[in-house]
Design a protein that fits this description.
- The chain contains 9 helices and no strands.
- It is mainly alpha-helical.
- The radius of gyration is 17 Å and the shape is globular.
Length: 189
């Protein structure tokens, strides 16, 4: 795993520097992890969802390729960006599918329940996304911590590495962000 982590980081750097062969070499190393992230997102979906993990992965991969000029610091940072893109794809899908009027169908729930069940209820996913956008305006790092932890499936340590803060600070920021998001979602309901 350590060798793959280093290899992916090196290949990311080469790809960002303009080496198109680096993307081809990196793809087999990242594919399974991207698929795992996609499957994790879709496990929270209701049965019969029109997107499959491979569809979500491919859509995110296409968008990631278009963003090759991003300054991804390492493998964890890249996968965090991928997880965020997958979340956004699901939100876009929910918005297109639901076409809800403002506030229609939104239920009052806490953040944990919203994250675990949001994708199965388009209105809930949209409410969570709206709250995340507000959090990002207020405190971008707290928003990033939630994205990496809940949507990226990263550990506290991996999140600390990506955000450049200590693991204890990640835990504190996560608790504060969760409380803020819960309050925000209750106010929207």
């Amino acid at each position: 795993m350590g060798d793959d982590t280093t290899a992916v980081t090196r290949l990311l750097q080469r790809w960002q520097a303009g080496d198109p062969g680096a993307l081809e070499a990196m793809t087999p190393l990242i594919y399974q992890e991207l698929r795992r992230i996609a499957a994790s997102h879709l496990r929270r979906e209701k049965s019969g969802h029109t997107l499959q993990p491979t569809d979500l992965l491919h859509e995110a991969f296409v968008r990631l390729i278009k963003q090759h000029d991003q300054n991804w610091k390492n493998r964890a940072h890249f996968f965090g960006a991928a997880a965020n893109l997958m979340r956004q794809i699901l939100v876009d899908h929910a918005r297109a599918k639901a076409c809800l009027k403002r506030g229609g169908g939104v239920e009052r729930v806490g953040l944990d329940e919203a994250v675990s069940a949001a994708a199965s209820r388009p209105a809930q996913l949209i409410a969570l996304d709206d709250a995340m956008k507000e959090l990002e305006k207020f405190d971008a790092r707290k928003c990033r911590v939630i994205e990496l932890r809940f949507f990226g499936g990263m550990s506290v340590e991996e999140t600390a590495e990506v955000t450049g803060v200590s693991a204890s600070k990640v835990s504190r920021e996560q608790r504060m962000a969760e409380a803020w998001l819960q309050r925000q979602m209750l106010m929207q309901a």
